[in-house]
Amino acid sequence: MTTMSTRIAGKVVLLTGATGGLGSAAARRIADEGGNLVLTDLEVEACDALAETLADTPGRHTTIALDVAVEEQWREVAAMVGREYGRLDALVNNAAIGSIATVEDEEVEHWDRVMTVGVNGVWLGMKHCGPLIDAAGGGSIVNVSSILGTVGGFGNSAAYHAAKGAVRTLTKNAALHWAASGVRVNSLHPGFIGTDQLLARHEGSERHAAMLAGTPMGRLGRGDEIAAVVAFLVSDDSTFMTGSEVYADGGWTAA
Ligand SMILES: NC(=O)c1ccc[n+]([C@@H]2O[C@H](COP(=O)([O-])OP(=O)(O)OC[C@H]3O[C@@H](n4cnc5c(N)ncnc54)[C@H](O)[C@@H]3O)[C@@H](O)[C@H]2O)c1
Known about the structure:
By secondary structure, the protein is an alpha/beta fold. The chain has one domain (12-249): Rossmann fold, CATH 3.40.50.720. Helices cover 44% and strands 14% of the residues. Helix 1 (21-32) crosses helix 8, helix 3 (71-85) packs parallel to helix 4 and helix 4 (108-135) runs parallel beside helix 5 (158-178).
């Protein structure tokens, strides 16, 4: 039996898109390592249900609805964090939406939504939570990008690639902005992860086969394998890392 580390004990960590496949895995891991979580997603009821599953962990977990694309909601969330915890140590910008459409087929309305959630959401999170982390003496921001923020993938999902690529460079820019004050900002680039949501959409499809074929390890990743990297970046085990792009992709980008 392995003993879970307590390296996140006492830290306050805000997670966006917390109730999705990777968000809930990250919540479980951070809570298991002793963290206090601010669980946010579009529906507070889903956050409440997630918090209930974490009742066996030592931290204090709170929930609040947050559409990451809406600045006013970020203001409210930042104020709530200040009121409830008096500090913030880490922000995990995890929320995003996808698109399968190609450059030719994408519609302006959906393109704008993918960018607004995936890019503006990350920026607004840093804008409103970065100062709280700074005021706490430094900490960590983890921006969840993707391998599709770096390479061309299957030649479709154009808006998603654009959003995830923007997250990659925005991360480096913010990392330089805060480098001297100890607010670390890194991007995380998962490969294809077999979350329930991804399998429900793609299992058995040509795209599923292509995901497997393009992954040198020959399998999809697991949510807990990404959560472990999130926990590492949130923790003080990564204190000399900022502006880094961290890949957990079964070798996809090595090929
Ligand atoms: N699953 C994968 O294979 C994979 C691979 C690479 C990167 N990623 C990235 O990991 C992150 C999590 O992905 P996932 O697989 O858990 O996806 P998911 O769809 O299961 O979860 C995404 C969550 O974000 C929430 N969300 C959507 N729009 C929102 C908004 N406007 N404001 C706040 N929350 C919103 C959803 O309600 C959902 O809970 C995303 O950034 C995704 O792009 C996933």
